[in-house]
């Protein structure tokens, strides 16, 4: 099953809004909790209370600083900080699937979710080597490859209310920076969001065709460019308190119920 | 080809049962669904129905399972067997522990209750613990507000009868411009994240004022990387710009604020006081009639402009003074730009944007309402500018005035309690007058004469003994910090050690890591706690401490009362305390034991119920002397503060009454059935303009928030402050000590001012040093959590690019950081999105070796560090040798963020394996945790 | 990449072993009986030993047989097939030479072909990875094959062939290093494309997602000091190629050959260590590591 399906019925995935993510790690730990208790082996932790704690996580939040390129309107732009959640992007051309020697890694035909069948996994690590995004981690206790399942055991789960049939990271995200849906359907909410906000691929040059998209941060620190619009608003009505009180009397008369 | 996929179960059973309770991984108090499998906690998620978090949950909340199972949990009561601070304990029975405590406390109560200092830290049961302390009779009680953000609470309540914290919220549904000052992930964290997400989704603009561009500020559309401690100046400059442009809401100012109230302009003892009528109501001129009249008379249109002269004394409206002060050139953007580190053009642009959105994007809601003067309004005018602020502004010695300035800015734009603006959550709005005053009347063997904490309105309310000395061990409500509404927990240990104002016998603390991250001058505090007198006795004779975990403070107690974790206990998040209300609803919540403790531990509040009974405290015993409340759950249901009013407002009486009603024995069951909380909505039309909205006031009386309607005016001008100034000018019976006169005159200005905090002794220390709390950690708790400590297991000092270059530093190098008080040597990391002259680090990641059940070589203990070592609770000595508190002179708020340092490159990383200073390991009373974890409850 | 000893041992030994098998399969040297036995024993020991070593890094070696299922898409699976076929085919061929003095040369040819294919498939496991630009080059299979051939020739005592092949391998090695050093930059992948933030300006990693380590950092991020690497390259080059060539040229007898083989083996192992240790996986970009 290491071959990729020709096409999938749907392209379920995430849209992550880099303009909204505050970097709180809620998605990271919610994912850890759900996937420790559910699909496959628990996500283990080594040296949990010691000098070098390290565990399996399927979703991690990086942060980057960007020094914007100076331009005419902003010759000395301030550096920006962007929080950057990253998990499996459920690529259409997922190299992690084709490199797998045992068929443990596969991409589902019905929704495009990339999964690992843990009972077939020999833990060779090659799929992790082939993934440019660092989406796969070999669990040190279990010796099998772990990765985001897009909460395949939630999104169709009839034991959950309809509203909860979303990945746990999406359900828990306090800022609403994570969106889940069918990116293969141009009319879906997520596809529309991607279209509106210029959603982008990570490392498009890798040719992996990620399903998950990232919404770029909106332009920042532009308020001084609007000073031409704002300055007239601030035209002084008086320079001195005395003049101000003169203005005040007239202004008060103009209020509803005033004399003017 | 046909592809054969494995068949997987996409509908596995989630859990056996969901138990819904309240999170306690931080102060946010979200609703959680605790999924149980075979009687064990399997998974925790947010409760969708809950008013606070509506289903979402932060990293801490989801990691609760690791907290409940943390190896650092204390297991049984502990009696100290080694020297204090060593960590050598023996486990004892509860009977022995309670007998020890009773034997210590009984004589204190009989002879002199003030010898007990009872202070609680991150306590969420303050209305209960204060009730206990009050019945014990000691004046020495407070929680941790004084070293947290009392400036913000007091500044808000004195100015507008409500504050930021979690006591109010932006109108997230309508606001179009959200401006935050000094907000990291502090209180109300999930609601703020949710709100930011909501307004971002609408494309509304966010302005972040913060020296550090992380977290919320990272997603701000505009970042103002202000110089720490200058926010007040920046705000007053925007007020200057807005006044000059006439971009202020005159209608709002005249109706709802004391801008039109007349102030005595004569020299002498009345100067600066309000002109009042016989009933004590402040007077205004009615613009309709030109007559002097009480502000609240039906039909009055208060005049912002007219003055009034009686008996040759001119009375001028507050607004005149504001105009005179803030139109002065000293507040012009050009005059303050350098000091604040913000270009003048940027200040003007932001002020312009505030004005544009407040006035040009104003909107109306079709809601009828009637104001307290009886005037009917057919619409509500929305001014979609909302603001929020927290510790970054609060934790400076000029923080109180800065908070006031910020509220004045909100108010002149007409954006408080209007659609699109900032809204209060019940029990706020609540004017100063509706709060209690502080009480300190001690009678041996009897309760205190009233609640400890409250709001003073002048020198008469200070907690001073006959001889003028402080009545409270923390010197709250004295001339040093007259308006210290939350007490000064950070001064308790040093005052008790110094015997100033008096010696105490027993220090009793709860959930406060005072020997580590919750104290300034950490090393000094450790020494004070272990210091002995000439007889070889400890200077602080007895220390009782309650905590659920093996924190650094445990080692310094003589008797440790082990608390439960948050899933093993009852709690109430009460309207009498700090509830979980929303702007359009009153709400409270409970915790209940969703699991039973597997150790010999008890909820601290239940222990106080029993201890109270053993001490025979009124309120904790029945008439026959038997124990009144079996445990905290029993108290929550059966206690009544006033007839019909108890800790929980919901399901009272027959189970249908909200607010007022008889005790309902089924109340806790009803809460559990309802998801652990109860919400009572504010009627439509009563949900804005609350301080002046008759419908809201009536509703508040109905559910028991007040006993009568309490409409009031926003206090742009604070008369209580003026009264302290008058005393400092020599008027009145109660007089401040000479050395404080000038400072009181200067800093207790009734109109907001900005002043540079005390820099004496800071020569040569020019770099600002700050801390903030990471979103995934809360105080020191996160460290014992196997999942969270992987996110933040050590903390570098973040240094701006300019200083990195200046000192030849690269990531991973070590730097020596020195303040007038001490020095630390720590690893550094470059940050570009940071104020050029500010360094910072994450708070409370650094740990003492041996604490929290971590191994001694844990990165928290080797690389992690505290800035606390650089901060002293006292400022450097003055010329006369006197050392003043490192606190706000108004409220006593600990001025954590006034810290100034210098940095220099330290030795090569190879020579410095550990952050300095290093302390002796403490012996862990619980050992260390297991090596590896593979947590799965349902196998 | 983390230079895992098991993988270095595997690729080094099995490269050499299959190289030797290739020559044996081609009837070079043309030996039978005990001499043949010794040659085949060495070849099998190296090839099988290498293959066994490769299982040490598996999380579940007991499931290794499942790796034969995906030959249609997976180079690792193909490698398994080629190795097994080569070893199975060479067994009767070797038995013929050792026990019967017969050369079933058709089997030898097939075995030689699959030995070569084994080395090629091994190299393709690395070459196919776009995530590691230093490996994702045509020179990678060239390097594996030339090393294997040179080693095989050396071990099988084909002095002249060995001298030519060692020289070729040395050239491939130098060109590989030169091109490899440019590979990441030439790949077009950087922090800008990794984060999609490059259009705003210069991207720099700030706080990592975790303060400790994790599988990704342990497996993919290994930083070798530039000076250290240069030194190791000289050592690898000298031992793998210069010393064997000199020895073959100066003293082409048994002891010289033995030293040449050992020197070559150590040199190739060092080169292989560098092959892994210097390979930059693009996931390191998310951590601000090259």
The CATH topology annotation of the domain at 767-911 in chain B reads as Barwin-like endoglucanases
Q: Largest inter-chain interface?
A: A-B, 103 and 118 residues
Shape of chain B: globular
The percentage of residues in β strands of chain C lies in under 5%
CATH C-level of the domain at 767-911 in chain B: Mainly Beta
Give the N-to-C terminal Cα separation of chain C.
12 Å
Oligomeric nature of the chains? heterotrimer
What's the pLDDT, averaged over the residues of chain B?
Answer: 96
Q: Overall 3D geometry of chain C?
A: globular
Low-confidence region ranges of chain B? none
> Helix fraction of chain B?
10-25%
Helix run count of chain C? 10
The poorly predicted ranges of chain C are none
Q: Average the pLDDT over all residues of chain C and give the rounded result.
A: 94
Task: Describe this protein's structure.
The complex is a heterotrimer of chains A (260), B (939) and C (290). Chain A is built from seven helices and eleven strands. Chain A is an alpha+beta fold and 260 residues long. Chain A has two domains: 12-70 and 77-221, Alpha-Beta Plaits (2-Layer Sandwich), CATH 3.30.70.20; 226-254, no CATH class. In chain A, the strands form five sheets. A three-stranded mixed sheet of chain A has the order 10-1-11, with helices on one face. In chain A, strand 6 (105-107) and strand 7 form a beta hairpin. The N and C termini of chain A lie far apart (83 Å). With 939 residues, chain B is α/β, with parallel strands linked by helices. Among the domains of chain B are: 243-340, no CATH class; 767-911, Barwin-like endoglucanases, CATH 2.40.40. Helix content of chain B is 24%, strand content 16%. Chain B contains 24 helices and 34 strands. In chain B, strand 15 (308-310) and strand 16 (313-317) form a beta hairpin. In chain B, helix 5 (150-160) crosses helix 13 (399-412) and helix 7 (231-244) crosses helix 11 (344-360). The two termini of chain B are 37 Å apart. The mean pLDDT of chain B is 96. Chain C has two domains: 1-128, no CATH class; 156-290, no CATH class. In chain C, helix 1 packs across helix 3, helix 1 (5-25) packs antiparallel against helix 4 and helix 5 runs antiparallel to helix 10 (254-277). The chains are: A alpha+beta (260), B alpha/beta (939), C mainly alpha (290). Chains in contact: A-B, A-C, B-C. Chains A and B meet through helix 1, strand 2, strand 3, strand 4 and strand 5 of A and strand 3, helix 1, helix 6, helix 7 and helix 8 of B.
């Amino acid at each position: 099953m290491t071959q990729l399906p020709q096409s999938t019925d749907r392209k379920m995935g995430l849209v992550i809004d880099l303009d909204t993510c505050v970097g709180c790690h809620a998605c990271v730990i919610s994912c850890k909790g759900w996937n420790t208790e559910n699909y496959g082996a628990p996500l283990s932790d080594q040296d949990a209370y010691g000098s070098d704690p390290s565990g399996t996580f399927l979703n991690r939040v990086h942060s980057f600083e960007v020094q914007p390129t100076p331009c005419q309107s902003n010759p000395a732009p301030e550096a920006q900080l962007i929080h950057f959640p990253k998990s499996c992007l459920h690529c259409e051309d997922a190299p992690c699937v084709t490199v797998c020697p045992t068929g443990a890694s596969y991409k589902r035909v019905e929704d495009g979710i990339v999964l690992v069948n843990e009972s077939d996994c020999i833990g060779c690590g090659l799929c992790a080597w082939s993934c440019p995004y660092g989406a796969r981690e070999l669990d040190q206790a279990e010796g099998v490859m772990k990765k985001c399942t897009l909460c395949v055991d939630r999104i169709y789960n009839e034991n959950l209310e309809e509203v909860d049939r979303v990945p746990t990271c999406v359900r828990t995200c306090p800022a609403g920076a994570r969106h889940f849906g069918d990116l293969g359907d141009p009319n879906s909410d997520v596809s529309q969001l991607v279209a509106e906000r210029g959603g982008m691929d990570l490392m498009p040059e890798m040719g992996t065709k990620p399903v998950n998209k990232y919404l770029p941060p909106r332009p920042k620190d532009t308020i001084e460019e609007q000073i031409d619009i704002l300055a007239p608003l601030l035209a002084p009505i008086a320079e001195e308190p005395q003049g101000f009180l003169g203005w005040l009397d007239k202004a008060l008369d103009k209020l509803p119920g005033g004399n003017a | 080809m046909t592809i054969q996929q494995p068949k997987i179960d996409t509908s596995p059973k989630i859990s056996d049962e969901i138990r819904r309770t309240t999170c306690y991984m931080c102060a946010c108090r979200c609703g959680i669904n605790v999924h149980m499998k075979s009687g064990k906690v399997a998974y925790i998620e947010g409760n969708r129905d809950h008013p606070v978090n509506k289903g979402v949950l932060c990293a801490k909340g989801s990691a609760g399972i690791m907290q409940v199972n943390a190896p650092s949990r204390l297991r049984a009561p502990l009696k100290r067997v080694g020297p204090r601070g060593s960590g050598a304990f023996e486990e004892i029975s509860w009977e022995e522990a309670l007998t020890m405590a009773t034997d210590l406390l009984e004589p204190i109560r009989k002879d002199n209750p003030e010898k007990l200092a009872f202070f609680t830290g991150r306590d969420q049961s303050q209305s209960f613990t204060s009730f206990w302390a009050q019945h014990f009779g000691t004046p020495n009680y407070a929680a941790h507000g004084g070293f947290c953000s009392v400036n913000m609470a007091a500044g808000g309540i004195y100015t507008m009868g409500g504050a930021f914290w979690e006591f109010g919220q932006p109108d997230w549904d309508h606001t179009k411009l959200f401006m935050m000052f000094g907000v990291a992930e502090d209180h109300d964290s999930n609601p703020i994240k949710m709100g930011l997400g909501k307004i971002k989704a609408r494309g509304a603009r966010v302005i972040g004022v913060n020296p550090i561009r992380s977290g919320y500020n990272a997603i701000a559309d505009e970042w103002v990387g202000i110089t720490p401690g200058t926010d007040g100046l920046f705000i007053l400059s925007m007020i200057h710009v807005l006044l000059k442009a006439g971009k202020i809401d005159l209608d709002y100012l005249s109706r709802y604020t004391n801008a039109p109230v007349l102030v005595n302009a004569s020299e002498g003892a009345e100067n600066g006081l309000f002109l009042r009528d016989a009933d004590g109501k402040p007077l205004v001129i009615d613009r309709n009639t030109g007559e002097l009249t009480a502000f609240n008379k039906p039909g009055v249109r208060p005049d912002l402009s007219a003055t009034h002269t009686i008996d040759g004394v001119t009375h001028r409206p507050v607004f005149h003074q504001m105009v005179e002060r803030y139109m002065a050139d000293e507040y012009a953007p050009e005059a303050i730009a350098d000091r604040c580190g913000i270009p003048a053009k940027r200040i003007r642009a932001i002020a312009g944007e505030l004005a544009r959105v407040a006035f040009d994007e104003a909107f109306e809601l079709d809601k009828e309402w009637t104001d307290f003067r009886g005037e009917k309004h057919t619409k509500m005018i929305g001014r979609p500018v909302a603001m929020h602020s927290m510790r970054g502004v609060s934790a400076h010695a000029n923080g109180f005035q800065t908070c006031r300035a910020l509220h004045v800015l909100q108010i002149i734009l007409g954006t408080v309690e209007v659609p699109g603006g900032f809204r209060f959550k019940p029990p706020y709005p609540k004017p100063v007058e509706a709060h209690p005053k502080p009480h300190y009347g001690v009678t041996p063997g009897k309760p205190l004469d009233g609640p400890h904490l409250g709001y003073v309105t002048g020198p008469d309310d200070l907690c001073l003994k006959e001889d003028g000395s402080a009545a409270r061990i923390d010197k709250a409500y004295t001339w040093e910090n007259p308006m210290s509404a939350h007490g000064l927990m950070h001064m308790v240990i040093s005052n008790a050690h110094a015997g100033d104002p008096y010696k105490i016998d027993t220090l009793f603390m709860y959930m406060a890591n005072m020997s580590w991250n919750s104290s300034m001058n950490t090393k000094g505090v450790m020494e004070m706690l272990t210091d002995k007198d000439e007889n070889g006795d400890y200077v602080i004779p007895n220390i009782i401490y309650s905590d659920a975990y093996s924190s650094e403070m445990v080692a310094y107690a003589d008797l440790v009362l082990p608390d439960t974790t948050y899933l093993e206990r009852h709690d109430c998040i009460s309207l009498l305390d700090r509830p979980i209300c929303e702007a359009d609803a009153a709400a409270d919540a409970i915790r209940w034991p969703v699991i039973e403790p597997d150790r010999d531990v008890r909820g601290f509040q239940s222990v106080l119920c029993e201890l109270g009974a053993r001490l025979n405290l009124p309120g904790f015993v029945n008439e026959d002397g038997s124990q009144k409340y079996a445990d905290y759950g029993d108290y929550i249901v059966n206690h009544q503060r006033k007839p019909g009013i108890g800790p929980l407002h919901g399901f009272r009486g027959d189970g249908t009454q909200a607010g007022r009603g008889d005790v309902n024995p089924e109340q806790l069951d009803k809460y559990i059935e309802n998801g652990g909380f109860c919400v009572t909505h504010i009627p439509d039309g009563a949900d804005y303009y609350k301080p002046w909205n008759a419908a809201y006031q009536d509703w508040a009386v109905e559910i028991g928030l007040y006993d009568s309607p309490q409409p009031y005016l926003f206090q742009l001008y604070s008369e209580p402050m003026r009264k302290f100034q008058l005393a400092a000018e020599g008027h009145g019976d109660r007089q401040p000590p000479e050395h404080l006169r000038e400072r009181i005159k200067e800093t207790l200005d009734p109109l907001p001012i900005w002043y540079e905090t005390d820099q004496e002794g800071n020569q040569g220390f020019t770099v600002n040093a700050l801390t903030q709390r990471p979103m995934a950690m809360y105080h020191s708790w996160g460290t014992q959590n196997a999942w969270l400590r992987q996110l933040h297991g050590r903390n570098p000092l973040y240094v701006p690019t300019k200083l990195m270059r200046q000192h030849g530093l690269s990531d991973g190098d070590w730097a020596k950081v020195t303040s007038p008080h001490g020095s630390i040597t720590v690893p550094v990391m470059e940050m570009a999105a940071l104020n050029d002259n500010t360094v910072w680090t994450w708070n409370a990641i650094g740990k003492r070796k041996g604490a929290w059940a971590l191994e001694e070589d844990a990165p928290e203990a080797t690389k992690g560090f505290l800035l606390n070592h650089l901060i002293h609770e006292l400022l450097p000595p003055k010329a006369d040798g006197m050392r003043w508190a490192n606190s706000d002179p108004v409220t006593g708020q600990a001025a954590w963020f006034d810290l100034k340092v210098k940095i220099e490159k330290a030795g090569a990383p190879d020579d410095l394996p550990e952050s300095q200073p290093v302390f002796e390991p403490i012996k862990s009373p619980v050992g260390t945790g297991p090596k590896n974890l593979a947590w799965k409850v349902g196998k | 990449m983390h230079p895992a000893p098991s993988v270095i041992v595997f690729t080094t030994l099995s490269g050499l072993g299959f190289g030797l098998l290739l020559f044996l399969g081609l009837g070079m040297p043309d030996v039978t009986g005990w001499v043949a036995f010794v040659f085949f024993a060495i070849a099998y020991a190296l090839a099988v030993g290498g293959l066994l070593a490769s299982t040490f890094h598996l999380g579940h070696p007991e499931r290794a047989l499942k790796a034969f299922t995906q030959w249609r898409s997976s180079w690792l699976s193909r490698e398994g097939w080629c190795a097994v076929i080569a070893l199975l085919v060479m067994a009767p061929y070797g038995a013929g030479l050792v026990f019967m003095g017969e050369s079933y040369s058709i089997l030898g040819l097939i075995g030689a072909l699959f030995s070569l294919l084994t080395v090629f498939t091994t190299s393709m496991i690395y070459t196919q990875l776009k995530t590691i630009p230093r490996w994702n080059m045509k020179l990678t299979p060239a390097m594996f094959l030339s090393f294997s051939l040179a080693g095989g020739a050396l071990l099988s005592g084909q002095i002249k062939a060995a001298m030519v092949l060692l020289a070729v391998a040395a050239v491939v090695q130098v060109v590989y290093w030169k091109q490899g050093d440019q590979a990441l930059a030439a790949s077009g992948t950087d922090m800008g494309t990794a984060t999609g933030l490059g259009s705003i300006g210069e991207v720099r990693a700030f706080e990592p997602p975790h303060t400790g380590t994790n599988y990704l950092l342990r497996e993919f991020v290994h930083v070798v000091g530039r000076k250290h690497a240069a030194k190791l390259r000289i050592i690898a080059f000298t031992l793998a190629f210069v010393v064997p060539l000199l020895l073959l040229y100066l003293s082409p007898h048994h002891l010289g050959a033995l030293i040449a083989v050992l020197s070559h083996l150590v040199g190739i192992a060092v080169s292989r260590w560098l092959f892994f240790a210097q390979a930059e996986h693009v996931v390191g970009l998310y951590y601000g590591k090259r």
